[in-house]
Amino acid sequence: MTFKNISIIILLLVVPFLGNAREIKTRATLDSSIILIGDQVKLNLEVEFPSDVNILFPEPADTLGAHIEIVERKPVDSIQLDENTLKLMQEFIVTSFDTGHHNIDPFQFRFSLGDISDTIDSNPLTLHVFTLPKLDSLMNAMKGPIDIKAPYEAPVTFKEVAPWLFGILLGAGLIFLLIYAINRRKQNKPLFSLPQKPKEPAHIIALRDLDRIKEEKIWQQGKIKEYYSEVTDTIREYIENRFEITAMELTTDEIIKKFEARKELLDAKTFDNLKRMLSNADLVKFAKFTPLPDDNNLLLVDAYFFVNQTKIEIKAEQNDEDDENEGEEVILK
After folding, report:
1. Are 25 and 15 in contact (CB under 8 A)?
2. pTM above 0.70, yes or no
C-alpha cells in the first residue's frame, strides 16, 4: 500500500473525530470570585458534547490546590439539549480559610469516540479571599498623618485648685440664693417651684433626634460606631416612651421577644424593619463589622420608617381663651 493511500485512510478516520471534538464545550464557573475568609461559594462544572461521544467527568480531590477545600459535591446531572447533544453538570461547594488570590487549575474531561480517546480542559478560575479589616486600623487609615505632639507638661492637679474652686462656687451660690430669695419674697411667691412642663409626644422627640443625627453627618466623618449607637439609642428611647418597654436596659434579642409576645403592637413589615435595624447595628457595635455607605443610609431610613409607622397622633383642644376657634382640634405631628 502506497504512502498516499495510508494518508487518505488516516484522514478519513481522524477528521470525523476532530469534527465531534470541536463540538465539545466545557465550562467552570464560580457563583462569586470574591468571598470573605471561611465563606462558602458554589463551583459549577459543565460539558456539552455530541451524544455519540463518551465523556468521563473529572473527579477532583477534596482540596483544589493548597488553599481551597471542597465542602460538598453534588451528583452529576444530565440534560438532553437536542437529538444529538447532551449536557452534564456537577455542583461543588468550596471554601477557603487563607486570604489571598488562589488559582484553580483547569479540570480535565476525558472523552472517547470509538478507539480514539483524548482530554479537553475547562477554563481556569481564581478565587479572591479577603478578611474584614479591624475597625481601629481602618479608622487610623482614614485619619491620615498626625501632627507631632508638643512636649509634655505636667498639668495642675485637682488637689491644688480644689480649695479655690469650692470657695468660689460656694460664695457664688450663696449670693445667688440670697438675691433669688429676696426677689421671690417681693413677688409673694414660694422660694422654690417646679412648674410642670407638658411632656412631648414620643415621636416628636425621636424625629427631632433623628433630624439632628442626619444633619451632623456622623458616619460621613468616619464615626461609624457612634452613628449606629446614636440612631439605635434614639429608637430604644422611643420604644420606652411609646410602648412602655424598658428598651434601654434590654438586649436586641430581649426587645424582639417583647414584641413577639405582643404581636398586636407591630405589623409584620414594621417588626421585620425593627429586627433588621437593631441586628445590623449590633454587628457594627460589637462585631466590628464595617458596613457599606448604602447600609449607613438605610439605617436612618429604617429608623424614620419605624417611628412614622408606629407614632400616635395626639389631638389637643385649643385653650378656651380663643373664642373664635373654641372646641377646634389640632393634630400634633
Report:
1. no
2. no
